[in-house]
Structures are given as structure tokens and as C-alpha cells.
């Protein structure tokens, strides 16, 4: 009846509006040069006021209009589809990317503790933008130093 050519679109994700009581902001961008390749994570966060600790991809996206968009009720916990036992993860920034939850950016690459402005670029072969373990359509949370949101 019909036919079509497959078009390959290499995925890119960029965070939208930031929510929360602190006037911090910035951008976290995820991209892949080729499908199934490592994900490049480009982080540019501003005005953290030394209040930030860890940052992670969470399970659900932000609910527009929510009174508490960063709450555990709205976006649930860290994205961990492989049910990684986090008690066996090394300290933040010292292990390999496969030793942390898929969404644990600060575990894999280090905390934001003591930072006001933070810029970095990482390559992560274990944070896919396609497939069953994709981080697309989720959210990123920058936690306070005590782990709260």
C-alpha cells in the first residue's frame, strides 16, 4: 500500500524552566552524536549559592501547575530502572558510570557542593536517550546539600 524511508534523528534533550525557592538556574543538556553512542552531558548552572549537593535524573517529568513540582509525590525518586543497589555505589565521583543509578549524575561525576556557578561536560555511555532505559521525558533535580529538594 505504501512505503517510507526511516529517518534517523539523533536525540537531544534540554531542560526547560527551573522550579524551586532559590533563584538558581542554568541548563543541563543531553545529546548523542550517534544513536546508541555515549551521551554528552553539558552542565551550566548559575547562582547555586553553595546550597546544592547532588543532582539526578528523576523518574517523572515536572507536572505543570503543581504547587510542589519537585516533590517526591510528583516526580518520584531517582531514575534507576536496573534497580541498582545504591549502598554498593562508591563515593560520588570516584567510580565508573556503571556503578551508579542510570540517573545519578553527581554520583558518576561529582557533587555540586560549595559551588555558586558550575560548568562541566561529561561523556556517559550508561545514560541513554533512546530505548527502554532512556532518560527522555523525565526531570532533573538539583538537591540541597542535605539531600532535600
Care to describe what's here?
With 149 residues, the protein is mainly beta. The chain has a single domain, classed as Immunoglobulin-like (Sandwich). 6% of the residues lie in helices and 26% in strands. The chain has two helices and six strands, in the order E-E-E-E-H-H-E-E. The chain has helices at 72-75, 105-109, and strands at 12-14, 25-32, 39-46, 52-58, 118-124, 139-144. The strands form two sheets. It has a four-stranded antiparallel β-sheet with strand order 1-2-3-5, with no helix packed on it. Strands 4-6 form a two-stranded antiparallel ribbon. It is globular. It starts with 11 loop residues before the first strand and ends in a 5-residue tail after the last strand. The relative contact order is 0.26. GO terms for molecular function: metal ion binding. This is Superoxide dismutase copper/zinc binding domain-containing protein. Residues 26-144 form the Superoxide dismutase copper/zinc binding domain. InterPro entries: Cu-only_SOD (IPR053257), SOD-like_Cu/Zn_dom_sf (IPR036423), SOD_Cu_Zn_dom (IPR001424). One of its GO terms (biological process) is superoxide metabolic process.
Amino acid at each position: 500500500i505504501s512505503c517510507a524511508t526511516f529517518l534517523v534523528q539523533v536525540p537531544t534533550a534540554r531542560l526547560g524552566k527551573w522550579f524551586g525557592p532559590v533563584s538558581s538556574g542554568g541548563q543541563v543538556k543531553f545529546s548523542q552524536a550517534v544513536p546508541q553512542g555515549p551521551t554528552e552531558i553539558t552542565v551550566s548552572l548559575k547562582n547555586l549559592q553553595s546550597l546544592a549537593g547532588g543532582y539526578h535524573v528523576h523518574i517523572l517529568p515536572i507536572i505543570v501547575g503543581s504547587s510542589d513540582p519537585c516533590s517526591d509525590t510528583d516526580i518520584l525518586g531517582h531514575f534507576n530502572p536496573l534497580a541498582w543497589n545504591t549502598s554498593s555505589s562508591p563515593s560520588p565521583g570516584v567510580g565508573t558510570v556503571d556503578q551508579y543509578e542510570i540517573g545519578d549524575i553527581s554520583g558518576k561525576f561529582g557533587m555540586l557542593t560549595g559551588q555558586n556557578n558550575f560548568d562541566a561536560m561529561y561523556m556517559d555511555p550508561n545514560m541513554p536517550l533512546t530505548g527502554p532505559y532512556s532518560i527522555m521525558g523525565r526531570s532533573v533535580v538539583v538537591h540541597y546539600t542535605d539531600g532535600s529538594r
